[in-house]
Design goal:
The complex is a heterodimer of chains A (473) and B (41).
Chain A: H1 21-32, H2 42-49, H3 53-106, H4 110-130, H5 133-139, H6 144-173, H7 188-212, H8 227-231, H9 243-246, H10 250-280, E1 282-283, E2 286-287, H11 291-319, H12 321-342, H13 347-376, H14 381-388, H15 390-410, H16 418-441, H17 468-471
Antiparallel strand pairs in A: 1-2
Helix pairs in contact in A: 1-6, 1-7, 2-3, 3-4, 3-7, 3-14, 3-15, 5-6, 6-7, 6-11, 6-13, 10-11, 10-13, 10-15, 10-16, 11-12, 11-13, 12-13, 12-16, 13-14, 15-16
Chain B: H1 7-35, H2 37-40
The chains are: A mainly alpha (473), B mainly alpha (41).
Chain lengths: 473, 41
Amino acid sequence: MLSALDRRHTVAPPGYSRWLIPPAALAIHLCIGQVYATSVYKNSLIAHFDTGQTAIGVIFSIAIVMLGLSAAVAGTWVEANGPRKAMFVSACFWAAGFLVGALGIATKQLWLLYLGYGVLGGIGLGIGYISPVSTLIKWFPDRPGLATGLAIMGFGGGAMVASPLSRQLLSFYDPGYDPANAGSTASGSALVWLFLTLGVGYFVIMMFGVFNVRVPAADWRPAGFDPAKVAAKPLVTTANVSAANAVKTRSFWLLWVVLFCNVTAGIGILEQASPMIQDFFRDNGTSAVSVAAAGGFVGLLSLFNMAGRFVWSSTSDLIGRKPIYLVYLGVGMVLYVLLALVGQAATALFVLLACVILSFYGGGFATVPAYLRDLFGTFEVGAIHGRLLTAWSAAGVAGPLIVNAFLDAQGKPGTLTAAAYRPALFTMVGVLAVGFVANLLIRPVPERFHEPASGRDGVEDAAQPVTAERSGS
Amino acid sequence: MNEQAGGGQRVRLVVSWVVVSALLGYGVVQTVITAAKLFTH
């Protein structure tokens, strides 16, 4: 049955609208983006399992680690089997994660929640994240930044959908639960029903993506598209590099450092957003910013994180990938310095600086697939993207570690002021500087890493399944 | 006549974009309501 999902059965017929592909990709990313909304039911899980923050928090960590691992390991499989099968497998793992997780909650077996949402769901996350990327790039060779920006914007939007939806569903299943009250927790049965609802609902929505996604035919080109014009831009290649060869190049690892630095710096703010704004405006032990207003700040950051993914990635189509990363990292450094030195002068200034920084954070995620396309061609860009995402996993550990280590040395939570954040913020400036230099050092990939010219113009791959043997170096 | 040549594809396009726009719109509206608390509290 799964052969019907194969790449060769999903080649688009003539006239198929490429504008069906972004919503197909969004259907996947809007669902898997839920992983950033797990804090909504964290306290309810703690109460249900009668355990601590760490035991529940580790579920999220397992999922993110599995995301990085599965994207890196399954990337070549995704390229070989095509987006439809990859999306279907992702949907199965993602939904199974919720269903096994629900079983774990119902039977009070925490390990089942780790196995379900953490391991199975995490595999669904990794495969789902990379599954539409190379297809979008092949359908939009003229605007790859816009196409991948649209999809990866969905990942940011997924949490914005899942957070309020989960609160409303928990209130529906447990009328005694008050989402407006931070101390209120939902019952175990409400959590079970929430997981079942999300599992089934996300599976259905992801099937929209499976149903609509197609790969372009071998000879397909967008109307009026001239590949020569694209290739004439600096750093854009018409050659193709396999995933196995890409990781042997200096440019891959420089880009890994660029992504790592950009994500590390952004996570530094994202992780601390709510207490940070309260600490920056603390006077005589009392913050001028209420808890509700701090929650509003977090919401605003989510909007800018999401918008940055689309706006900046689309802008990269016009000004180029290397210049846009110079903006993310270079202007980012200036914004971090301003945040450290004058951020406490006015709430509006603090919010503005943080929002622009977060838009660069999102932009960095969304632009990287197009940067990879420019450097390595379209041949195995999804698999290369999967390997690059290990930088995200590493940054997810490094960013909070750096910020928390500095803040712990400055005092106890609830007593900190703007000055306590300066060492962490200046460290982030240094991290961004490293990324800035790494980006400057990126050069075109040497010819010895290129695939033989025949049958490797990227778009041709659509019509022919790429075997594991072909992908080898 | 292939599957995308007629109104079938137009319907599919509209339905696809409506579904993802509705989801995204719901998330954005809910988040804007939350973000507004930054200016009202």
